[in-house]
Amino acid sequence: MAKSPKEPFFKGNNLPIGLQLYTLGGDLRADVDGMLGQVAKIGYRTVELAGYLGRTPQELKASFDKAGLKATSSHVQAEGNGPEPTLAQIDRVIADSHVMGVEHIVLPSVPMPAHVDTKPKPGEDLAARFARVYSQLTADDWKGVADLLNTKGKALKAAGLTMGYHNHNAEFMPIAVKGGGETNALEILLKNTDPKLVSFEMDVGWVVAAGKDPFALMKAHKGRFIQMHVKDVKATTKPNYAFQQDPTEVGSGIIPWVKLLPAAYAEGVRGFFVEQEPPFARPRIEAAKLCFDYLDKVVA
After folding, report:
1. Which among 112, 92, 94 has a CA at the least distance from the CA of 103?
2. pLDDT digits 0-9 by tens, 26-73
3. What is the fold of 16-297?
4. 3-class DSSP state of 192
5. Bond prior to 279 in cis (omega within 30° of 0)
6. What is the DSSP string of 241-293?
7. Integer distance in angstroms from the first to the last C-alpha of the chain?
């Protein structure tokens, strides 16, 4: 008797395929309800916020409900002067999350200490600027970020929420250790945050763009990664720490999803969000559909 084929990964594990809304860029802000409807029609069931799109939490919740989507995770900056709450206004973050149904709060970038020169230099492109800015961050700076995550994580946990950190590739930039040797920012954050208060969201595309191995990273830090950005890159991506990659739709790049998805699940990842970086070879919503169609069928 022939063996029955395995179920696709997400269906077999009863997991929704999520979308980080950053993927849709300005198209989403221009037509929130229309785009969310298209996202749901593709088959996505969960989304991750990267800002409030000029709407109130109540308005966003109504839009998600209308589309049949759940916003389970939200990227929140550490500080800022905009209309949206930051980690500095943690009570507002908590209240808004409860309104929208968000469960996971994720810090997507770090606050810059006063000693860091962030001003653009003549002829400097964005990637070079990011590399220069992040190269100024010290081990003590990153330990300060770990302290921030612990403090906010404690407040969020008391409210039934989780605190997470999302990596790019700059966090893998080598940092010299006093007395010899080297470490990197992500290792400092993993070592100096309380696993009971702080988790991590692995952006696989940025891990690979840094020339690192996502399998080894998860194995070395069992249980710390609970969410993942499912992001693919082309073989032309050269290892770097300067926010550079050659993006492509999930399943058409070099990342071995057939092996990585079950490995991530085994290490505790439960929130999977498609995310794609610009530049796009096609309309963003079409790219999001290609990613979904691949993941919906992949047997892993």
Report:
1. 94
2. 999 999 999 999 999 999 999 999 999 999 999 999 999 999 999 999
3. TIM Barrel (3.20.20)
4. helix
5. yes
6. SSS---EE-TTSSS--HHHHHHHHHHTT--EEEE--PSPPSS-HHHHHHHHHH
7. 23
